[in-house]
Amino acid sequence: MVDLSIFDGKQRLHVQGADQLWAFKSSLEIPLAHIAEVRADPAIAHGWWHGLRMPGTNIPGVITAGTFYQDGKRLFWDVHNPDNTVVIELKDERYAELIVEVVNPNAAVELVKTALTR
Q1: Terminus-to-terminus CA distance in the chain, angstroms?
Q2: Burial zone of 66 (CB within 10 Å; 0-12 exposed, 13-18 middle, 19+ buried)
Q3: Distances (CA, A) of 45 to 37, 58, 114
Q4: Cα separation of 70 and 10, whole Å?
Q5: Which pLDDT tens digit goes with each residue over 86-111?
Q6: 42 and 83 in contact (C-beta within 8 Å)?
Q7: Is the bond into 105 cis (omega within 30 degrees of 0)?
Q8: What is the C-alpha separation between 80 and 113, in angstroms, rounded?
Q9: pLDDT value at 4 more than 90
Q10: Cα–Cα distance measured from residue 90 to residue 30, given in angstroms and rounded to the nearest whole number
Q11: Is the pLDDT of residue 2 over 80?
Q12: Of all residues in the chain, what percent carry a pLDDT higher than 70?
């Protein structure tokens, strides 16, 4: 799970707890100008194929965390509970998408969308 916040024109994702080990990352900062779209999307995390792990962890039904390659795109995952999944599509960044679990997907999406309109 990640803690998503907005600070100083950037979106900050702090990977929580042991997920830092599984995801091989502790945090990500993305300028708001590089966010193309954000949406709550549990369906994307319910599938079993998330791409090739490089590096990352994938135990189907338990955790998907780390860097994955799928359809020629680099993705960052950190999801235990697919029902709380948020997808953040990026432009001009190392990752094409961030697919993460948050406590409240609708509130996270609203937070980012509100920051993007400022």
Answers
A1: 27
A2: buried
A3: 17, 12, 25
A4: 26
A5: 999 999 999 999 999 999 999 999 99
A6: yes
A7: no
A8: 24
A9: yes
A10: 9
A11: yes
A12: 99
